[in-house]
Backbone:
């Protein structure tokens, strides 16, 4: 017997990704004011790890870890329960 994959998890993941992207859009203007930006890269719903790319001044700023954890991660975790951690990756 072939088990049918549940679409609920996929639908939930799509909803979470949409929420994440919308939150990044609200955070983006403040980063852009300082010459930086952020891009969504990937979200692993199973592990709860969100990967983003910090760009511009944010990519090399000594304060980028604080921006990532206390700014971006805090905002996203507050609004998307599935996100456990936000990591910056270099592309």
Residues:
């Amino acid at each position: 017997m072939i088990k049918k994959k549940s679409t609920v998890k996929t639908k939930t993941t799509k909803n979470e990704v949409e929420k994440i992207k919308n939150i990044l859009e609200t955070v983006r203007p403040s980063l852009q004011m300082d010459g930086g930006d952020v891009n969504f890269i990937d979200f692993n719903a199973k592990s709860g790890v969100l990967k983003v790319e910090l760009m511009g001044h944010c990519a090399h700023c000594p304060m980028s870890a604080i921006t990532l954890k206390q700014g971006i991660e805090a905002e996203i975790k507050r609004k998307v329960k599935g996100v456990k951690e936000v990591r910056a990756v270099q592309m």
